[in-house]
Chymotrypsin-2
Amino acid sequence: FFLDIQQITRNRMWFFAKLNIFLTILVAVAVTCSFALRMHGEPYEGLRYRNTGPTEASSAASLTGRIVGGQEAIAASAPWQVSLQNIYGNHFCGGAIIHDRFVVTAASCVSGLQKSWIMVVTSTNNWMGEAWWYAVSAIHVHCNFDKPLYHNDIALLELATLIAYDEKTQNITIADEDELVEGEILTMTGWGSSVEGGAYPNALNQLSVNYLPYKKCRSAYGGSENVDMGHLCTTSPVGQGACHGDTGGPLVNAKGQLVGVGNWGIPCGRGFPDVFAKMSYHADWIRSTINGCQQT
């Protein structure tokens, strides 16, 4: 009887040890997945922040807060950058001016929103400061957005009025050809959180990153088909990268051309590639959408 008790005790200890290991792995997987920029079934960025206002934390955020590992951008160094805000004036995504009346962003930023819920804010490095804002007259989401998941995450916002250009407000040329080479330095800008779950910094920030071909990017994500030739990936050291609020923001090459807009990844600065919609891949769709919507 005593031996049976010892055996039962050992069996219970073995069971709980295995259970502890299993739960540890399960929690680790859940935590990793929960920090992905956009997971299946989650509300899109615009819908998630539709009814939120600027928080006290955002109001008090240091002007040196940044994209993870980045630095504050010089005034007017990215005059094409816009902040997409809800009707309460809260930033939720980035975008880039590409035409007198069109801004490109991620479809996951605006899908499901009504045009009256979006303000396009320009001409500023401080999204809570003085700036020009424009109403949206139409939202053009790619017809194959999320078909399959994470693919064709691109949209155009048609503005109700022409953009007034000045030294702080300019459009940017889209890169038509895929001429990037592995390791090439690109620049991303945005108002994303500097830490996971943190408030958005007031000041626009920038980060230099390196181009990674999509096949190597796919390998970094375990061969996932969520990455394909319509995506553009970048790498940066651990502790640097995109974070929440950077979605839809511009990625620019050394020629000053727009090569991508922020899509998804595993934030913030965890060492995984950041994934963008590739502009050269979507250039024909952008042109046909703009030309089809222009009044003659």
Notes: The first helix runs from residue 2 to 34.
